[in-house]
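Kindly inspect this today.
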Amino acid sequence: MRTDPVLAPPEDATGRKNMLQLIQLRWIAVVGQVVTIASVRWLFGIELPLVPMAMLLAFLVLLNIASLLRLKARASVSNGELLLALVLDVLALTGQLYLSGGATNPFISLYLLQVTLSAVLLEAWSTWVMVVMTGVCFAGLIVIFRPLELPHPHLHDLFKLHIRGTLVCFVLDAALLVVFVVRIGRNLRARDARLADMRQQAAEEDHIVRMGLLASGAAHELGTPLATLSVILNDWRRMPVLAADAELLQELDEMEAEVQRCKAIVTGVLMSAGEARGEAPVVTTVKAFLDDIVQDWRATRQVAEFAYDNAFGDDLQIVSDSALKQVICNVLDNAADASPRWISFSATREDEALVLAVRDAGQGFAPEMLANLGKPYHSTKGRLGGGLGLFLVFNVLRKLGGGVAARNRAGGGAAVTLTLPLAALALDRGSPHAG
């Protein structure tokens, strides 16, 4: 059975998603540059150094291919890698601008797109690196560039030509910023949501640890008085005065049974806390495990009608899990409190998962209860400390890699579904009990 105390959090994919956005933007830049170069050369008849420009385009294509291969080899992308990608994009843009008029080229404002992307994607210091770099490149292109050789018809319309190019660049900048900044913002919000969930999970697990320590301590403290009560009851049973009274003997038997039940509960608490030492794991099967839970639970709870359907299918050997047993009993207890007249409990198998469904005919969940399901101290019972049962159910199932779903039934009442991967209960291959 899986015993990992804490599942490793999934690797943050935000950097990977942002790198994919940069790759898409680079493909758009390549296509846009090809269209622009072709239009300037053959539509306006302006001579351009096509060979070095084509080499820069080939560099961007190779950079994209290398970036895609890098993403296949490794899932996460660091801030430094995103910074390097943007730096290379700026260098390629600077090369194209150098070959096509330098700072006089209206597409010089594409530097702002790179700075904006860095402000969204990178850490603060990296963004300032991009600001300094683009500023230096811009200043350098004022002094060092390859002038465009304009044909005679365009010599008198330089200002109009520049304004038209500026308009095209503005529209391109605006469209790309809207598309990609919105996508990147969505990636960042998803990352923040994952981090918030992880912080909430850590807080809940800390809460469970403290509750477990409290329960373990209480179980240790209760062990001694329960043992004393058991001894006293046995002594009373041997007293001649009490032994002669059949009615008193019956009551003593009932008291002894309740004491033994309390001792079994204390033992279960200690086992769940990992303090039951020297006991071999109990090997059982899914069907036997569930049948035993139902039998033990029905012996202590009175329900007018209890519909039990164990339709798991082909049986499977597992290790008996006391924590899971307590979880199932907790859900059944809640259903019995809400609906003492009728409860349904079914077990099915869906692919490699055990699905347990508990249904009742009570009043169902209130809307605020469904909204806060699984959070501590949210309960419809209105008593101090309520809501801890379902809170523990959610967290135990999450530890085992499963999940909990709750809803109100159309015909009235509530339904709680527990889904648990069978791998969480399966025997370890190296276990001596696996045979």
Observations:
- The longest strand covers residues 342-350.
- Strands lie at 283-285, 305-311, 317-319, 342-350, 353-360, 403-408, 414-421.
- Confidence is low (pLDDT under 50) at residues 1-11, 274-279, 382-386, 429-435.
- The chain has twelve helices and seven strands.
